[in-house]
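Possible regression after last week's pipeline update?

I re-ran a chain I had predicted before the update to compare outputs. Posting the input and the new output here so someone can diff against the archived version. Not blocking, just want to make sure nothing changed silently.
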Amino acid sequence: MTSKQEILKQGFVDVKVFVAGLRQSHRLEVQKQKTAHGDVPFLVCKHYIPATEMVRLAEEFQLPIKHKDTVVFPKGTMPSTFAEKIATVEPDTIEAEVE
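New output (post-update):
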């Protein structure tokens, strides 16, 4: 079984899925997409994969999966869980003494 770090480092993962009763091999590629929380890595499918198989793969790899308009996250996670934080600038602080 491939770990999440290995998949992100390699940039893709090959999977076996059942589509219409047939077992098929698909390659899911890692693509980072900008969201309000930062850059989120998605495993993107080029070919159709049923939603039930996408849920299984998301749980197995603990990474979000996307195909066209369908996005599946592992149970109990959301985009901010996977976001790589964008550099933020903290406002200058003003220190005042109370007399």
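Follow-up from reviewer: compared with the archived run. Residues 2 and 61 are 7 Å apart (CA to CA). Marking as no regression found.
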